[in-house]
Write a structure and sequence with these properties.
CATH class: Alpha Beta
Shape: globular
Strand order of the largest sheet: 7-11-12-3-13-14
Protein name: Endonuclease GajA/Old nuclease/RecF-like AAA domain-containing protein
Helix content: 40-55%
CATH topology: Rossmann fold
Number of helices: 15
Length: 432
């Protein structure tokens, strides 16, 4: 399914027009707009499930559109108060969703198919609710809860037939600065999760809810199907994850059992990310069930935060391994400052290319798989990598080399090397 994001004159982004893939990476300096792109995608990808839910609840078209714009303002407080006209647009398959500001007035538009279907579905909802009021005992309560308007069912079935479930994905958003929440426990997290969106950042609220679900999943699942991933998690966190009721621990490689709240900043930062990633691995009995058609999107801000380059590499390899083995249609949206993170993915891309070239040389393939396991190799075609700077996005895919471009990766080291050269030129001990 083709996807496209367009941003014009919003939050410092002048002209963004990008195509999305399965693994999407936005890299650039701070305040370059990486998170703005990710948040726009999170908002727009929630449009279809939000619309379907609003129809089923009997919400009017005007109320739905007003509530969606309120959510947009909550995602971008202050940024939407823009003197410039701006456009935010998302396209997927043959549908679009757009928020536009003209003369400081909002216009919220979306594909006609939703308008027509929603109108028909709302009529069905109204008729069904009227019948339920007049004949309250005519239908079983479970039937009423499970009921869905035929027009809405047909639309959903049509979309899923054409695109799988990609237009209605389950989304999870791993925010930056997550280490703060690892020190919070049960009742505090529950309180924050239930706080109205008007009083708390909605992405923060979503993250807390999703983090708690991932914790419970890890507690219940027991890790039996995740052993193949634990070498990587141990490399990342320099120990083992340990969950016991409301308490989280890191069992360090030297045997010390440290409460997460007292662990290192890197361990605190990466702990929620690891739980979210491990939650993408289903239990063994579910691997070949109906979930094969489900679609999931995981957003990760700054996966490299507070981590040494070796651990950053292990994060990239873990993400690739989960991506390759997930039965879901899995998509990553990643924002990062780290060139190490990109070079790690470059290794996996290169390994995939070598595997194709060596397909008829089993001895060489065996050597290759010892360096980079087959389960971590990813084709370049799955990647879209963009460098954001000065309000624009530039693709960093070098299709001639078949790798992520090294130009941006080398820029920081070039500046540092140039400066070091200037310093050496002043050093009297280096002069003849």
């Amino acid at each position: 399914m083709s996807e496209r994001l367009i941003i014009r004159n919003f939050a410092g982004l002048d002209n963004i027009d990008i195509e999305l893939g399965r693994i999407n990476i936005f890299i650039g300096p701070q305040a370059s707009g990486k998170s703005v792109c990710a948040k726009c995608l999170y908002l727009f990808k929630s449009f279809i499930p939000t619309l379907f839910a609003s129809i089923k609840s009997g919400q009017s078209k005007i109320n739905f559109e007003d509530s969606y714009l309120i959510r947009f303002r909550e995602y971008f407080p202050n940024l939407w108060r823009n003197d410039k006209d701006f456009i935010l647009r998302y396209e997927a398959a043959n549908i679009f969703v757009q928020i536009e500001s003209k003369d400081r007035k909002f216009e919220f538009t979306y594909s006609d198919i939703f308008i027509t279907t929603a109108e028909n579905a709302r009529k069905e909802v109204e008729a069904f609710n009227t019948k339920s009021i007049r004949f309250p005992h005519s239908q079983d309560i479970f039937e009423r809860l499970a009921w869905e308007p035929q027009a809405l069912y047909n639309l959903r079935a049509s979309f899923h037939y054409s695109n799988g479930n990609e237009l209605e994905p389950l989304q999870r958003y791993v925010i930056a600065g997550r280490s703060f929440f690892t020190a919070l426990k049960g009742s505090v997290l529950t309180f924050l999760a239930n706080t109205p969106s008007s009083a708390i950042d909605p992405l923060l609220k979503d993250f807390i809810q999703q983090y708690e679900i991932a914790r419970r999943y890890q507690l219940i699942d027991g890790a039996s199907d995740k052993k193949s991933f634990y070498n990587l998690t141990q490399q990342i966190i320099k120990g083992k994850l340990a969950l016991n009721g409301d308490e989280d621990y890191v069992v360090n490689n030297d045997g010390r059992r440290v409460p997460l709240a007292n662990s290192s900043s890197g361990q605190q930062e990466v702990f929620p990310l690891l739980l979210m990633l491990l939650a993408l691995i289903p239990e063994e009995e579910d691997r070949y069930g109906p979930i094969d058609d489900e679609s999931q999107v995981l957003y990760i801000e700054e996966p490299e935060a507070h981590l040494f380059p070796e651990s950053q590499q292990a994060i990239a390899y873990l993400m690739a391994a989960i991506y390759k083995q997930s039965p879901w249609h899995l998509q990553y949206i990643i924002t990062t400052h780290s060139p190490y993170f990109l070079t790690s993915f470059n290794n996996l891309i290169y390994a995939h290319q070598l595997a194709e070239r060596l397909h008829d040389q089993p001895t060489e393939l065996k050597k290759l798989y010892k360096i980079v396991p087959k389960s971590q190799q990813v084709p370049l075609s799955d990647f879209r990598v963009y460098g954001l700077e000065n309000g624009k996005a530039i693709s960093l895919i070098d299709y001639e080399l078949g790798l992520i471009s090294a130009s941006l990766l080398d820029s920081a080291s070039d500046v540092t090397a140039d400066q070091f050269g200037d310093l050496m030129a002043l050093d009297p001990t280096t002069k003849p």
